[in-house]
């Protein structure tokens, strides 16, 4: 939809259900996913109020592309202000030159070739992790996949498997940090700084983490042949050598962005396959041939990839934010300078006008994900300057890990459990129990 000249633009309509004072707070806080899905067909842009905070919900795929691709006007929004409180130094949270420079440095490691070289390590991690399972044991599938993703991501980052006390300390910090950041998003800064036991414990974890990361960075600096993604993060000439706190924050952004997402996608793929026996049998037929190889190739696993792509469609990030730096027209609607804009990849993916029968798990329905991405109807990895740099790694990890799990184990949900709450913002299905039966 072409933008109207500013003089013809209208004010965005209010989202339905708005109440005096609280606005749409009740609907948004009760179930953000459902609210965003319900608002999608209403209008291309809606004004949503949550108490004193107002944002523009952008529903139209073409306008979503515009707010992410026009980097002169649109910048990262409120979601990242909160994250910035803890990871302020990271170059991923900058815009412009510093951001472009860190993305460029990481390109060889995160590109197709770099990931192809890392692929055998992924399969090794998946085999080692699943070899520890006992026939008949009951597993919290979300936690299992998180442990697997932690080990693999640390290996990718540091260029060598992290083991022993260092692994235990990093695991501890990495399971606490996402919950803490979720809390910081919801609470005012002063409350999370009060000297109460929970805040003191968090400060102590962060202090230990800083010491450990500094040691790992130092090891890497001294190594005759620096390896892993960290090697790229620490490089710089004398005048632009990155500071230690910048590298630490970058490491944390990568770990936080790369672990829960991969673990959540894998766990959901396993749950969806358990609920859809025909898809599971289709996968078995592919895996029978492919996993006989020592290091199965991603290209030999197109069906496994389709399972992952469909899982990513159904279990995607709830919302992302942008901010308009100047007054602008979006379609027919006037957006004031400083306005917060929200869009929901999950709601796009579940829109039946874009994906007929959208609620159904139907691997193969997407055909070319690239074409869907171009049309703005499939955005699991975001869009624009901050689009996920870990996409190749994520797809390779999830495909190879799913192939390894599925070819060795039957995972069946423990009866009597409700499906994990996909309504929550966090897509990780923690607490869902599955029985592991070894395949003969
Ligand atoms: C299935 C797995 C994954 C999904 C669904 C996913 C999705 C996303 C999304 C939606 C964004 C935000 C884009 C935006 O702000 O516009 C993002 C950013 C990011 N992701 Fe991923 N991601 C995944 C795996 C990974 C992995 C494995 C890594 C690295 C180990 C990674 C590293 C990052 C980083 C560093 C950013 C910030 C990029 C920037 O600000 O420039 N992600 N990801």
Automatic annotation (TrEMBL):
InterPro entries: Cyt_P450, Cyt_P450_CS, Cyt_P450_E_grp-IV, Cyt_P450_sf, Cytochrome_P450_monoxygenase
PROSITE patterns attached to this UniProt entry: CYTOCHROME_P450
Alphabetic keyword roster: Heme, Iron, Metal-binding, Monooxygenase, Oxidoreductase
Keyword Heme set for record: yes
Swiss-Prot/TrEMBL cofactor(s): heme
Superkingdom assignment: Bacteria
SUPFAM superfamilies reported for this sequence: Cytochrome P450
Iron-sulfur recorded as keyword: no
UniProt record similarity statement: Belongs to the cytochrome P450 family.
Official protein name in the record: Cytochrome P450
């Amino acid at each position: 939809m072409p933008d109207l000249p500013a003089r013809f633009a209208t004010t965005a309509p209010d989202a339905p259900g708005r109440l005096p004072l609280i606005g749409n707070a009740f609907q948004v806080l009760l179930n953000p996913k459902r609210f965003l899905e319900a608002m999608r067909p209403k209008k291309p842009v809606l004004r949503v109020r949550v108490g004193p905070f107002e944002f523009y919900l952008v529903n139209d795929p073409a306008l979503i592309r515009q707010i992410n691709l026009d980097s002169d006007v649109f910048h990262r929004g409120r979601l990242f202000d909160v994250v910035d409180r803890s990871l302020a130094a990271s170059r991923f949270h900058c815009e412009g030159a510093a951001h472009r420079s860190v993305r460029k440095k990481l390109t060889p490691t995160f590109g197709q070739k770099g990931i192809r070289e890392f692929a055998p390590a992924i399969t090794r991690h998946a085999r080692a992790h699943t070899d520890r399972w006992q026939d008949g044991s009951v597993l919290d599938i979300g936690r299992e996949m998180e442990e697997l993703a932690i080990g693999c991501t640390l290996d990718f980052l540091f260029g060598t498997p992290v083991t022993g006390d260092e692994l235990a300390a990093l695991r501890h910090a990495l399971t606490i940090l996402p919950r803490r950041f979720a809390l910081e998003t919801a609470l005012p800064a002063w409350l999370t700084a009060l000297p109460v036991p929970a805040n003191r414990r968090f400060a102590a974890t962060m202090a230990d983490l800083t010491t450990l990361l500094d040691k790992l960075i130092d090891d890497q600096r001294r190594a005759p042949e620096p390896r892993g993604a960290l090697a790229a993060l620490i490089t710089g000439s004398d005048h632009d050598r990155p500071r230690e706190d910048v590298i630490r924050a970058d490491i944390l952004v990568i770990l936080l962005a790369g672990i829960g997402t991969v673990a959540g996608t894998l766990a959901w793929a396993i749950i969806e396959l358990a609920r859809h026996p025909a898809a599971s049998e289709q996968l078995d037929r592919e895996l029978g041939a492919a996993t006989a190889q020592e290091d199965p190739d991603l290209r030999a696993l197109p069906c496994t990839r389709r399972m992952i792509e469909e899982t990513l469609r159904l279990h995607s990030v709830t919302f992302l934010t942008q901010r308009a730096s100047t007054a602008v027209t979006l379609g027919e609607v006037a957006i004031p300078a400083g306005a917060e804009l929200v869009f929901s990849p999950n709601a796009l993916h579940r829109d039946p006008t874009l994906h007929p029968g959208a609620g159904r798990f139907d691997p193969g329905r997407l055909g070319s994900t690239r074409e869907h991405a171009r049309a703005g109807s499939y955005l699991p990895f975001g869009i624009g300057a901050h689009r996920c740099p870990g996409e190749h790694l994520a797809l390779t990890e999830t495909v190879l890990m799913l192939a390894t799990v599925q070819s060795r184990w039957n995972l069946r949900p423990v009866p009597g459990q409700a499906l994990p709450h996909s309504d929550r913002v966090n897509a990780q299905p923690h607490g869902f129990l599955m029985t592991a039966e070894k395949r003969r």
